[in-house]
Amino acid sequence: MNTFIAGQLENQGYYSCFKPNPINREWAIEDMRIISLLSKADRILGRLDMFSNYVPNIDMFIRMHVVKEATKSSNIEGTQTDIEEALQSHEDVPLDKRDDWSEVQNYIDAMNFAINELSALPLSSRLIRMVHEHLMRGVRGEHKQPGEFRRSQNWIGGRTPSDAVFVPPVHLDIPELMGDIESFIHSPVCDLPDLIKIAIIHYQFETIHPFNDGNGRTGRLLITLYLVSKGILQRPILYLSDFLEKHRRSYYDKIMAVRTENKIGDWVAFFLEGVIETAHNGTRTLSDILDLQREYSDLIRPLGARAVNARKLINAMYSNPYIDGLGAAKILEVTPPTAYALLRDMSKSGIIKEVMNSGRERKYVLDKYLKIFKG
Predict the structure, then answer these.
(1) In terms of domains, do 357 and 277 share one?
(2) Residue 1 placed within a domain
(3) Residue 141: pLDDT band by 50, 70, 90 thresholds?
(4) How many domains, in total, are found in the chain?
(5) Is this prediction's pTM over 0.90?
(6) How many C-beta neighbours within 10 Å does residue 53 have?
(7) In a domain, 266, yes or no
């Protein structure tokens, strides 16, 4: 990595753009710091993946992981939606936050779509474009060629390319550069550990900036897709956006330092630190969920014959911890008065909590469960 040259500036008349060098090349890892971090990241990530096999019905909880990732990734781009708002229906979100809410919902949709498509399509430019189309559908940026690589110059910061913080390569170079990423994914010149590969891929994708809008969200979504596509994760349970949002300044600075000073090793080390912290937190989250499930089992036992319906309702709320009487009635296939009676008793037992709601329907939340993902 010490010999890596990120690219070069190319004069375009009144501004210069940065053309990255190919990443599908020979790589040598000689930095013991990276080797040590890689060993730790592999170990902790393996523990998280193994732990996920012991969590009953883990797919019930994955949606909450995706919602948190969608919220944090969108927050990096400046949206103000939090996880509680992201879980609400469109009608319950304040008017001034509905655009942000829609962007988060699109991220959730794009992630779910991509995970499903991986069973039929390889991780490729085609799939990335399809994901981008889902991401940008019906939101700000929907008129900026969703699902298509840009056909004009874009830039980051500043009013024009001449005073921008960073100017990606010209659009004519995008097909070749994205083809290089594909080759690096599927037929690399040399074998690199996958965690290092996806760190390099993420950097290169953000540097190419192939779309007119939504590059950051697409690039972060690409991290999880890569790990799942390579079988490193059996399920999509590792999301780095929480770490990247907490260390946003360092995230941007490390990527920029690769472009300006060729410091790819510092970026890879930062990325591996993110994997370690995120995987550790993910294991703790799953452990907390198992503990909470046992607590819920104890709390519903005094409900007697209605414990079966209470458990069914809790299981449904693992995907979205908010519910009202009509929703509960539909899940349980009972009348609304019967559903409300159960919700009130579950609230008295400390299982759920009534929340303030601007609508006519009284709402409840599985608050202890929601706090696990808010932390």
Answers:
(1) no
(2) no
(3) low
(4) 2
(5) yes
(6) 9
(7) yes
